[in-house]
Amino acid sequence: MTITKKLLTSAVASAMLVGGAQAEISNDTVKIGYLADMSGTYRDLAGPNGLTALEMAISDFGGTVNGAKIEVVSADDRNSPDSSSSTVRRWVENEDVDMVAGLVASSVTIAVSNILEESNKLGIVSGSAASSITNEHCTPNHIHYVYDTYPLANGTASAVVKEGGETWFILTADYAFGHALENDVTRVVEENGGEVIQTVRHPFPTSDFSSFILQAQSSGADVVALANAGADTTNAITTAGEFGLTQSGQTLAALLLFLTDVHALGAQTAQGIQLTTGWYWDMNDETREWSDRFMEETGVRPTMVHAGIYSSTIQYLNAVKATGSDDSQTVRKQMMDTPINDMFAKNGIIREDGRMVHDMYLAEVKTPEESENEWDLYEIVRTIPGDEAYRPLSESKCKLVTQN
Amino acid sequence: MTEILGVPVAVLSGQLMLGIINGSFYALLSLGLAVIFGLLKIINFAHGAMYMLGAMCTVLMFDVFGINYWVALFLAPVVVGCFGIVLEYFLLRRIAGQDHIYSLLLTFGIALILQGLLTNIYGVSGLRYSMPEMFRGGMNLGFMFLPYYRAWVIVAALLVCFGTWFMIEKTRLGSYLRAGTEDSQLMQGFGINVPLLISLTYGFGVMLAAFAGALAAPIYSVSPVMGSNILIVVFAVVVIGGMGSIAGAVITGLMMGVVEGFTKVFYPEGSAAVIFLVMVVVLLIRPSGLFGKEA
Amino acid sequence: MATTTTQTDIQQSIVKQQKAEQRKKLILNLVLLALLLLAPAVFYPVFLMKILCFALFAVALNLLLGYTGLLSFGHAAFLAAGSYTTGYLLSSFPGLTTEMGIVVGTVASLVLGLGFGLVAIRRQGIYFAMITLALAQLVYFFFVQAPFTGGEDGMHGVPRGYLLGMVDLNDNTAMYYFVLAVFLAGYLLVQRIVGSPFGQVLKAIKQNEPRAVSLGYNVDRYKLMAFVLSAGLAGLAGSVKTVVFQLASLNDAHWHMSGEVILMTLLGGTGTLLGPVVGAGFVVTLEYQLSQGPLGDWVDPILGAIFVLTVLAFRSGIVGEIQNFMRKNLS
């Protein structure tokens, strides 16, 4: 079986040599592997509904590309880099998977991107937050599509400082993601003339935030920023509300909030919080139309990650169609050469380090009076142009950039 | 302002208060564990899941049936307690008399099932539950703003803890319980239905966990995974107090809440690890825990 | 006269039986060895290596749980100590040969095991389990804080390198046979220990500690030896796992991992040599298969149900139940 396969591929390779750089789709199949947390902490922001988004993209594309069929395999990453790397290794080595989508926990993403580089396949990261994925951990074999910590800090912090929030108290989740956010926020605050007067690092995960909220209150800072995620953030916001943090004149800024988090909190608790997002379902007719279809399938409104999975899959298939190839470098180059204009992004550009640069949005959570239904949660306050939001290439530590 | 180690006294008094509030949750949870272990010798690894069930029930009772907080605070523990009795009757009973480790494995399996099923139905982001109207707001104690609800947590938790201690140590029912688990044949001979007593005890221990869950619903994010991390902390509390010691579990629960609270000020990163450090030190000095009887 | 004949007859038949049993065991072992040698032709090698690493980990735990009667709830600490030490060394010192990295990782776990052992060994039963858990939580905290571990991002891109500076381990087949060799060495070591006089004392401690004390054995020292050996083997498993996957992560140090290895051991059968291996193979395969298919989000409840079932219906574990069945049918 494998021998025939090897023979075939070498035959194809020699045919390519003879016939010039004629592109081919291997095995006449484009195979996409969806790897995400299906059962743990990050289930809701990507998870099973992300697979639905991926399948929607394939069926919208028509189910085939240049006559080759499109197949999907999926797996739960268990948030474990070991399990994920054995899954992905088998996908690329034995099952001819061409592209891996989803990818949430940063440890999983980094492990998988190393394997993809080794085997020269493509990964499109939609779920992870760590900006290191296209910085020190960048590879020529993956694209980081939706957001990262850099614009999260950039968008929210600069907006809040400009509104007069000069002194900052940062409550950081004590792990790499939290530290990255904390550093980015500190830099942005200081650049804009503000000052970080205290940072406190809480263990991950923490269920009771009252002690930290009390410390934030007695710090006297104008702004209390939450550099954490998921249940930690929602717990901290609930507790801040209970202890009357905002009533006493302090501003609460959450650096990473997904729509699902805000939905869990509800407009009553979350109202007035400013946050940065890569996409929101209720921005225009295009986004609403797609979100309605998504909701019909899943029963919930999509997060930016769900929309990113859909959009990146369409872009990927377009590139395969245009080049007639599923070779990772050919497709990646095509994707880099084609600006992204769809319901997810306008004029989105994939840079050489793999970062997809697109506009980000500063949003404010609506009050219960303004909110018309349980998913009507954000008011988009400002659009942050992509090249202002993301880390500039001049600051990059990516090996693909410094080489040039 | 007066300061201790560079931290104003007012801040420390606030942290002491919050420590006691958190400790109240630990006390309730470890009390249930201590009752189950002390009387039934079951290592209940489903305790975190029962805490979660209590909170989930409270939220769902409101969402589905519109049952208000006060009724749910009573009803949710009862429902979960009955569920516990069913578990005891159909599952745990079959491994009575076996090595402790089997009860650990069995209850761990049950916890995995419950957590997994509910995750698939409700997701992990958490369910919304709003604070009952009468608890909105709080009082200014001078050194801190104390929300009314947190004050209620202390009162409710301590009442339930004291009641439990009183029932087990000072009443006839409690003495049956203690005797029944020590020498079940003898008690059976006296005409007491020991298996029923055991079922009820397990149900009661689980009920305490569910009560803690219901109490937590308005202030913590309620989700199917909320019980998985608190479990080992509570185990640590029970071990520090001395396994099986009812009063020990309550007092240690409160103490650990305070210890953790102060750690959050002086070395916040270490606040999740400090309880385990205390546990190692205590077991080195007093092998059977602070309040345990020397073996 | 007549009685002596019967006695020799009985003795002879016992010897015969023992020989027959030994032969059976030998054949069984040879068959298993052949299967392991041929397995990569059928199964995916990285997957097999994962099973072997966890099998070694479970075998290490079983030395304590199954043969000494001590339940450690903190064995993840040793797996992670081996894993991170080896990962750090191989990443930072490119000149180091792979086996040196693994040896040092194992030694690190041995030392950590000695520390744990000295603190925990005097406590019994549930207290022993809880103190190992507490110590492991402190180790976890250290790994979260220590900069070299990369926190929750983990340590990535650990080079597999060359065995003895010659054999290229980047080749999966070479890597597989190396992992197999390490696993067999660990397995045979435990087999040797269990069969030795030292192992007999351990079993005596498990069955009745006061009697072992009254027989004049320094029980604490035996327990400590067993604990340190077990920790070292767990560290070896972690070190090899790091080389296989080229990464080390916090999952290895989390208490769930300590729980998982206990489940593997119990599921396969404690106190049997092969049990932990079968248990590890079963759990890893199940988790892997379930996470792939349409049941992806049902892994936890299904695992949970299997544990419940095991405790209720197959308490001696897979291998233990098979042994019981064979014994019943043979006699």
TrEMBL record, chain A:
Residues 1-23 form the signal peptide. The keyword Methyltransferase does not apply. It comes from the Bacteria. Residues 29-366 form the Leucine-binding protein domain. CDD domains: PBP1_SBP-like (cd06327). Keywords: Signal. Pfam families: Peripla_BP_6. Belongs to the leucine-binding protein family. This is ABC transporter permease. It comes from Marinobacter vulgaris. The lineage of its organism: Bacteria, Pseudomonadati, Pseudomonadota, Gammaproteobacteria, Pseudomonadales.
TrEMBL record, chain B:
Keywords: Amino-acid transport, Cell membrane, Membrane, Transmembrane, Transmembrane helix, Transport. It is found in: Cell inner membrane. One of its GO terms (molecular function) is transmembrane transporter activity. InterPro entries: ABC_transp_permease (IPR001851), BCAA_transport_permease (IPR052157). GO terms for biological process: amino acid transport. The keyword Transmembrane helix applies. It comes from the Bacteria. Pfam families: BPD_transp_2. One of its GO terms (cellular component) is plasma membrane. The chain crosses the membrane at residues 20-40, 49-67, 73-92, 104-129, 149-168, 196-220, 232-254, 266-285. It is a multi-pass membrane protein. Belongs to the binding-protein-dependent transport system permease family. LivHM subfamily. This is Branched-chain amino acid ABC transporter permease. It comes from Marinobacter vulgaris.
TrEMBL record, chain C:
It comes from the Bacteria. It is found in: Cell inner membrane. InterPro entries: ABC_transp_permease, LivM-like. CDD domains: TM_PBP1_LivM_like. One of its GO terms (molecular function) is branched-chain amino acid transmembrane transporter activity. The chain crosses the membrane at residues 26-47, 54-80, 100-119, 126-148, 174-190, 261-286, 298-318. One of its GO terms (cellular component) is plasma membrane. Keywords: Cell membrane, Membrane, Transmembrane, Transmembrane helix. The keyword Cell membrane applies. Its main location: membrane. It is a multi-pass membrane protein. It comes from Marinobacter vulgaris. Pfam families: BPD_transp_2. This is Branched-chain amino acid ABC transporter permease.
